[in-house]
DNA sequence: AGCAGTACCTGGTTGC
DNA sequence: TGCAACCAGGTACTGC
């Protein structure tokens, strides 16, 4: 269930178990994910040492000298570090076995994805995978601010929520956080992107940063169990102000939260707090 | 160029 | 209880 904070939390969880380790073997039980898993994952990755684990947008990259494994969790993907004898579930499509090291027993990095909207691809050294080539800036860096949004909004006739979710404008703002950030900024998600002022975009960008950073912090505590997945808690759900709360009272003004479909996705907002 | 629509897939929930 | 319909946190691709 990955938006950017969950992907970043996953990265932080698995990175210490991977960095400096050598890939002992790759087991592919299914290769028909969002795209077929390319042969390089089987032929080039084994034997390589993982030098770094990076996140770009909602992609994770396992960097080695021979190239990088590029993972996306889609809607239902999950990555866990497990003992080699962990029982294999129906949707456990890929295991990347990690060689034993002086400080860690042998482990596997297991990719599980019931819906198979995720992917595992390969990026040769020194290249940028085509899927990454046209992505906008990372929301939590200085490359993204209100003017990023304001400039992108020129000449757009679609709604501000769709602009916020456009990966060419800014990456990592998924359906939940788009609604939440617009609520925090007091902007009606249906408002035409071109009709939002530069000042309000500054506020919106600040809220995107604040909410994503806060969720990553929360993810660090609520998702800590992905090494031994028992009792996964209620996530950040109890903290949401508008998402999934249609008909319920706004936490600020008690007005019922409304829901509308934009771009085939549900949007939630408070008609009193957002204009 | 921007935008709407379609597609990928399984599983949980809702409603008859 | 059974089963169909609907919904889900993502995103690339097509065609207008």
Could you describe the 3D structure shown?
This protein has 275 residues and is of the alpha+beta class. It has 2 domains: 4-133, Alpha-Beta Barrel (N-terminal domain of MutM-like DNA repair proteins), CATH 3.20.190; 146-269, Helicase, Ruva Protein, domain 3, CATH 1.10.8.50. It is 26% helix and 20% strand. The chain has helices at residues 4-18, 40-43, 130-133, 146-153, 160-164, 175-185, 198-222; strands spanning 23-28, 52-56, 59-64, 67-72, 78-82, 92-98, 107-112, 119-123, 258-262, 265-269. The strands form 3 sheets. The protein has a 4-stranded antiparallel beta sheet with strand order 1-6-7-5, covered by helices on one side. The chain is elongated. The two termini are 30 Å apart. Residues 221-234 have low confidence and may be disordered. The structure holds a DNA duplex (16 and 16 nucleotides).
Strand content: 15-25%
Strand neighbour order, sheet with most strands: 1-6-7-5
Class from helix and strand fractions: alpha+beta
Order of helices and strands: HEHEEEEEEEHHHHHEE
């Amino acid at each position: 269930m990955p938006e950017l904070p969950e992907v970043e939390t996953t990265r932080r969880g698995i990175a210490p178990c991977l960095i400096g380790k050598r890939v002992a073997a790759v087991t592919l039980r299914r290769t028909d994910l969002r795209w077929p898993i390319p042969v390089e994952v089987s032929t080039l990755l084994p034997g390589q040492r993982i030098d770094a684990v990076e996140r770009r947008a909602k992609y994770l990259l396992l960097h080695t000298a021979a190239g990088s494994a590029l993972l996306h969790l889609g809607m239902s993907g999950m990555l866990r570090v497990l003992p080699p004898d962990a029982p294999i579930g129906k949707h456990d499509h890929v295991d990347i076995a990690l060689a034993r090291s002086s400080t860690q027993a042998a482990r596997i990095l297991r990719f599980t994805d019931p819906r198979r909207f995720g992917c595992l691809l390969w990026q040769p050294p020194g290249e940028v995978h085509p899927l990454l080539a046209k992505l906008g800036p990372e929301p939590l860096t200085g490359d993204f601010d209100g003017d990023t949004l304001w400039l992108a909004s020129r000449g757009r006739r679609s709604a501000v929520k769709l602009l916020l979710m456009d990966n060419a404008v800014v990456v990592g703002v998924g359906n939940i956080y788009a609604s939440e950030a617009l609520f925090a900024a007091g902007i009606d998600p249906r408002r035409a992107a071109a009709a939002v002022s530069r000042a309000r975009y500054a506020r919106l960008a600040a809220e995107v940063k604040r909410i994503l950073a806060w969720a990553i912090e929360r993810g660090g505590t609520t998702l800590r169990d992905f090494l031994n997945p028992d009792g996964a808690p209620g996530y950040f759900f109890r903290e949401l102000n508008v998402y999934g709360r249609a008909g319920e009272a706004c936490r600020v003004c008690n007005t019922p939260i409304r829901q509308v479909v934009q771009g085939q996705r549900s949007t939630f907002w408070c008609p009193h707090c957002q204009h």
